[in-house]
Amino acid sequence: MNYKYIPNSKLRVMMESARRSRRFVSVESDKKSIAINSNRMRVKNKRIRKQYKKRVISLQTYIDKTAKEIKEKKVGKMPPKRRPKSELRKPRSMVGRRLKPPPTKDLAVATKQLSSMIRTGLPLLEALNIISETSENTTIKFVFKEVASGISKGATMSDILDKYKEVFDEMYRALVSAGEIAGLLPDTLDREAQLLESLSKIKAQIKSAMTYPIAIFVLTMIVVVLMLIFVIPIFVGIYANSSAPLPAITQILVDASNQLKTKTFYYKAVPTCLAIWMSYKYLSKRSIVLWWYDRTLIFLPITKDLVTKSCLANFSRTLSSLNTAGVPLLESLEISKRTITNRVFKRIIEKMYKDIQVGNPIYRVLEQEEVVPIMFTSMFRIGEETGELSQMITKLADFYEDEVSASVKALTSIMEPLLIIFVAIIVCFMLVAMYLPMFSMMSIVD
Q1: Residue 323 shares a structural domain with residue 203
Q2: Counting Cβ atoms within 10 Å, is residue 2 exposed (0-12), middle (13-18) or buried (19+)?
Q3: Which one of 67, 82, 151, 303 has the fewest CB atoms closer than 10 angstroms to its CB?
């Protein structure tokens, strides 16, 4: 084996370099192991942190829920939060058709709110949007939103209202147009709200007066039909064993009961009812029949006062509102005529319109008409001669609205005893028809 001699200095250098290389290798390996361990610890710590975070969140949720339940038990449950605004569209039931007119009372409330908002200084556009958001009626929500959209594009309110004639009648549109031209929109809207409220009040009073007798009549007819179907056959079975003939009044009820239980009766009754309904629909459109009906209502003692006073109240209130708002008298008469349903009073207003065009005063026509009260004519004459026609017509409207309320109460008080008499006659007829054969059977036995 050949050993080479290495000097001490060179050997020292070689050993030093070997030592350095060993140290570098060990340091790199230590760094790698430390890096691996630190990565593992980081991953492990991240998992532990996530787990603890989930536990903390669930615990916090549980604490909040428990605190909310305790608070609701003590204070009470809070109402649901307001839903986000959605785009308002035309009601589905009215797509491709005319809008359904809203109730007069709802339109009056919306108009009064609009007048109050504008009077307090709120911009018209913002007031319309607020009414559209707060109203419960779908038609009012849609129409007022469309009006606000049109005004934001530069159109006038009266121009947009003309597109919805089924919602806003001619009187409403005329008042809004006059208010916009004169710069008194809040005042005209306030008058329109009062007018709609008075009309709604009159309609409600008349409807309430007619509801009670109609309900009593319908209930009486239902009771009679039920007795004919279920009660009369029991008595027929009792009387069948006797040889005595049935009285004529009882035989009428027995025949009616037998007819109601057969199919042939309904085969005849249904086409007959349809024919009567079609005849009614046809005749109700004939001008002669309608004229006769309206004239009969005016001269019938029971309905005379109510029909006359309600027509005069509607006419006076409409004419007063339009004339005060600055609408010309002829145009006011033309619009007021459309608010009256009775054709006799429409004919009188047409005569007034023609006489004014000629130059005659209004009261001249009213003096010639028998259906117009003398007091109404006198008040009109005083208003024309003193130049305070609007104030006088307003007083007439207030007076006749009170008179309509009194007439409704009087009509209701008259109808109640008449209905009692009607029900008593029906009951007596049924009782006599059912128990009369018993007396004839007792006479036979004696």
Answers
A1: yes
A2: exposed
A3: 82
